[in-house]
Design a protein that fits this description.
The chain is an all-alpha fold. It is built from five helices and no strands. The longest helix is centred in the first third of the chain and has 21 residues. It is globular. The chain starts with 6 loop residues before the first helix and ends in a 6-residue tail after the last helix.
């Protein structure tokens, strides 16, 4: 699957397709986190997994939340064919977290795809 997936294509998909698209976007997210040098090799400290703040912003950088919380949780939801979250708002958090950083357009684009495709009732 290549290129950007449109919102119209998501609406036209059946349930099986939305899970395939989500797996594709998760793979792209991982790839761009690594390419942007935002992928952490070392595991998190256990206390960092207990945050109740949005995006665990009180205990870890946003990229760690994506890597250690968001990506694994989304894989579990997809594999079990559970409903996917809506109104994620990943892009605004990324833009705030990485303000002033350059060469992140591809990574930001993937996060925007999540926000667009899983907004409201489309998930």
């Amino acid at each position: 699957m290549a290129g950007i997936i449109t919102k119209a294509s998501i609406i036209a998909m059946n349930d099986k397709d939305i899970y395939l698209i989500t797996k594709y976007l998760l793979t792209e997210l991982e790839r761009h986190l690594v390419a942007s040098h935002k992928w952490q090799i070392a595991p998190l400290d256990i206390h960092q997994l207990n945050s109740t703040a949005p995006f665990s912003c009180d205990v870890m950088p946003f990229e760690n939340w994506l890597q250690f919380i968001f990506i694994p949780k989304m894989h579990v939801l997809v594999d079990a064919k559970h409903p996917l979250p809506s109104n994620m708002q990943l892009l605004p958090m990324a833009e705030q977290s990485w303000a002033g950083e350059s060469n992140l357009q591809a990574l930001l684009s993937v996060l925007e795809q999540f926000d667009l495709h899983y907004a409201g009732d489309n998930a």
